[in-house]
Amino acid sequence: MNNKNVLVSGQRLRLVPYLHHHVPRYHCWMSDPKMLELTASEPLTLQEEYENQQEWLCAEDKLTFIILAPVSVRQGEMEVHEGVCGKCSATAEENVEGGKKILHSSTGGASQHSKIPVDAATALTTRDGEEGLYVMIGDCNLFLLSSGEGEMEGDGSTDSTVDTAFHILSSDKISSVEPTTTNPTAADCGRCFEVEAMIAEGNFRRRGFGEEAVRLLMSYALDKLRASRFVAKVRANNFSSIQLFTSKLGFTLLKEVPVFGEIHYIKFFIDSDGESWKEEAGYLIGTYDESVERKLRITNLVPENEQT
Q1: 199-215, pLDDT tens digit by residue?
Q2: How many domains does the chain have?
Q3: Which of 69, 155, 281, 298 has the fewest CB atoms within 10 Å, measured from its CB?
C-alpha cells in the first residue's frame, strides 16, 4: 500500500505521505507524555522513529498520511499559538463544526499567541496549483484487517489494541446505537480497513479537520485500495469519537470488546455509496513530489526570528 507519491486533497486539508523530513516534528508530538497516554503509544527514540517511518512507507498491510492544514490569513496577519512542541501556525476560521474532537495538550489552559505579518497574496490556499502555506497538524492511518475482523462473530477479544481516532475523553452522554445485523453482499467483494486519525496540534482542533481527514482517508481507500468496509475501534468512554463515527460518519455498532474497554463500529459501502462519499468529501488525488511540496510551502514551526 505504498503511498510515497500520493497527494490527497480535500476542501481544506492535504494528506501527504509520511516522509523522512516529517519525522522530527512527529517525534516531537510523540515525545509528549500526555500524547503517548492518549494514543496508547510507547515512546521511541528519534532513530527508532526514522526506522518506523521507513517501515510504514514500505508496509503492505498499513499506511499513514501526514495531515496538512492551511494557514488562513485575516487582514494580513497570521495567528500563532503554542502547540504541543512549541509555537505553530494556527488557522483563523470561524464557525467550523467538529468541536468535540479535542486532544488535550499537556499544558492546558488558554493558548498564548502572537501576530506575524505575512503576504496575503501568497499565504492563501487554493486547489488549482497556486502556492499556499500549510502546517503539519497530525496523521491518519489505515490498517488492512482480515475478513473475520469485520464480522459480528467473536469471543469478546480483539487482536488490536490500537485505539481509534482522536483519543479524546469526554463527559458528554450519547444515545445508544443499534448493532449491525446484516452485511451487504456487495461489501464482501472488497477489503476491510481499520481507520484512525490524530490531530496533534491543539490549535487545529474544534475546526472539523479530524472529520475531514477521516473522510478523505476513507475516500482514498475506496478509490485505490478496493475498500468496501471500515472498522473504528473506540474506547468505550471516548464519547466524542463515538459521536463522530456514528452521528457524522454513519458507522453502526459492530460489537463490544469489554476485555479492552472498546466498542467497535463498522461502515459498509457499495459502489454508488463510495462515489457519493468521495464527492461529499471533496476528494481529489494527485501526485506528490518535490515540486508539489514547494508549492504547498509546508511549515512545521514558525522561525524564532519571526516571532513577536
Answers
A1: 999 888 888 999 999 99
A2: 1
A3: 155
